């Protein structure tokens, strides 16, 4: 391999489960990235809602380098100071009494689902194992989490899925009433569906789920892997709905780009995860915990969270102005800095085409399914970068319209 790997090296050396763009970024600062040729991009993708403070934020760099000179890894035979500080910070800022640390959102959701089944088993018996989830939901790529997720394409071809998993319709409480019963151990829901199309929950829907769970002695699990840690304008989205879950999962922005996940729960539920029932080799790693603590403390401030709400309004205004001129979107929706623009009927299924054109114009975006352009920029993106990126996005829209 040459000193500078190329996109062709991916095809040669890597398992083909991804199809990355031809561009290879090599440097990032704030909301901007540069590729191997030195070309600049405005980052509206944020590593799929991971880089909450953009690239190489000085607060996170300082936390990482300071900890890197102290202690990297111990294993869970021991605890460590950064992990304890992070757990305490999350407990103090949320409904939770206890925290389980792991390495990713998929791990956090796996832990949440296992905890729910174990709790139900210990308190009610083996029969109480059913899980209610929702069509088009996404909860990770472990076999358990893809089975609970409501997108069959991710579980097909891997053999029989675990039993006892059923799927209702998102924002349709009646569909849940038809599925939930006294054998249900948990309902798992995203306060806003991410991969399913950037669809916020109706408050009454989440409130109804809480009531149904209480009625049937089931646990309510909020998957906040994508919506958590400031993404929607509060530390966690549940705080905006007036609904408190029994278990909450967090990752992505939690580490600002460093791999880390967490499951939060209450003293009522946590004892079911007794010694030896679950584990994570890198969970509570000192490096990850130190970075995550710095991210949480920096993001959970009025300045950052109010700024997210302001940038949401500005982002929506720009997208609506683009749409007024080009009529390319059917609907613009989302919360905070997780925004989806659903393609208009004339451009059905062409979100990926628009994403590719946007990259050519120098702005990185995402999709949420074939029909929704997804934006998840840094929570502290400067207005100058937002304006510049939107200008580039409009150039891409203009090219898409011209191709019709």
Automatic annotation (TrEMBL):
Binding site for N(2)-acetyl-L-ornithine: 141, 280
Record-linked PROSITE patterns: AA_TRANSFER_CLASS_3 (PS00600)
Keyword Ribonucleoprotein: no
Known partners and oligomeric status: Homodimer.
Entry-linked InterPro entries: Ac/SucOrn_transaminase_bac, AcOrn/SuccOrn_fam, Aminotrans_3, Aminotrans_3_PPA_site, Class-III_PLP-dep_AT, PyrdxlP-dep_Trfase, PyrdxlP-dep_Trfase_major, PyrdxlP-dep_Trfase_small
One CC-aspect GO term: cytoplasm
Pathway(s) it belongs to: Amino-acid biosynthesis; L-arginine biosynthesis; N(2)-acetyl-L-ornithine from L-glutamate: step 4/4
Alphabetized GO MF terms: identical protein binding; N2-acetyl-L-ornithine:2-oxoglutarate 5-aminotransferase activity; pyridoxal phosphate binding
Stored CDD domains: OAT_like
GO biological process: L-arginine biosynthetic process
Residues the record lists as N6-(pyridoxal phosphate)lysine modifications: 252
HAMAP family assigned: ArgD_aminotrans_3
Pfam families: Aminotran_3
Organism of provenance: Halomonas ventosae
Protein name: Acetylornithine aminotransferase
């Amino acid at each position: 391999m040459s000193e500078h790997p190329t996109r062709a090296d991916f095809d040669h050396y890597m398992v083909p489960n991804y199809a990355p763009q031809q561009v290879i970024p090599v440097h990032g600062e704030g909301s901007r990235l540069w590729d191997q040729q030195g070309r600049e991009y405005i980052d509206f993708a944020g590593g799929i809602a991971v880089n909450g403070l953009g690239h190489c934020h000085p607060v996170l760099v300082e936390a990482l380098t300071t900890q890197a000179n102290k202690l990297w890894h111990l294993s869970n035979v021991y605890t460590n100071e950064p992990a304890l500080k992070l757990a305490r910070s999350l407990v103090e800022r949320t409904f939770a009494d206890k925290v389980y640390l792991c390495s990713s959102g998929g791990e956090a959701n796996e832990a949440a689902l296992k905890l729910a089944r174990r709790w139900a088993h210990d308190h009610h018996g083996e029969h109480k194992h059913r899980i209610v989830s929702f069509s088009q939901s996404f909860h990770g790529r472990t076999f358990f989490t893809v089975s609970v997720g409501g997108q069959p394409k991710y579980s097909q071809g891997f053999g029989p899925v675990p039993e006892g998993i059923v799927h209702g319709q998102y924002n349709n409480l009646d569909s849940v009433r038809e599925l939930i019963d006294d054998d249900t151990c948990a309902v798992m829901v995203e306060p806003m569906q991410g991969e399913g199309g950037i669809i916020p929950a109706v408050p009454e829907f989440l409130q109804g789920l809480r009531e149904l769970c209480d009625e049937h002695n089931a646990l309510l699990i909020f998957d906040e892997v994508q919506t958590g840690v400031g993404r929607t304008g509060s530390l966690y989205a549940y705080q905006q709905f007036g609904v408190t879950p029994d278990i909450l999962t967090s990752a992505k922005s939690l580490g600002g780009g460093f791999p880390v996940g967490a499951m939060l729960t209450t003293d009522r539920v946590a004892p079911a995860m007794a010694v030896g029932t679950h584990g994570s080799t890198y969970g509570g790693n000192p490096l990850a915990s130190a970075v995550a603590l710095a991210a949480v403390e920096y993001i959970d401030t009025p300045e950052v969270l109010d700024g997210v709400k302001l940038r949401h309004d500005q982002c929506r205004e720009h997208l609506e102005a683009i749409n007024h001129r080009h009529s390319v979107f059917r609907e613009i929706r989302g919360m905070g800095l997780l925004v989806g623009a659903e393609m208009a009927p004339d451009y059905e299924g062409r979100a990926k085409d628009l994403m590719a054109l946007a990259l050519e114009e120098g702005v990185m975006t995402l999709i949420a399914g074939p029909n929704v352009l997804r934006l998840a920029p840094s929570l502290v993106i400067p207005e100058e970068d937002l304006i510049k990126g939107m200008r580039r996005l409009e150039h891409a829209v203009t090219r898409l319209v011209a191709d019709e």
